[in-house]
Design brief:
By secondary structure, this protein is an alpha+beta fold. About 15% of the residues lie in helices and about 30% in strands.
């Protein structure tokens, strides 16, 4: 690889601010804020609003999962009376 054209790749801590969940991963993004990880080393912290710990798709707490589409709503309003 050519020198000086690639961003610096480093380990960072991703912190989900809504649930407090954090994990260590590699990224080219950096931050001035640092935090000590379980191994005793200090890493930059990147704060995110949503992660797999708080996103409704991954937690199974999706809203509107039971609401049908346009056809179901039409059948509920104007469907045949039995």
């Amino acid at each position: 690889m050519r020198e000086g054209i690639h961003p610096k790749y480093q380990e960072v801590i991703i912190l989900d601010v809504s649930s407090g969940y954090k994990f260590l991963t590699g990224s080219t993004k950096s931050s001035n804020e640092t935090m000590e990880w379980e191994d005793g080393s200090s890493y930059p912290v990147i704060r995110v609003e949503t992660s797999s710990a708080s996103h409704p798709f991954y937690t199974g707490k999706q809203r509107n999962a039971e609401i049908g589409g346009r056809v179901d709503r039409f059948n509920q309003r104007y469907g045949s009376k039995k």
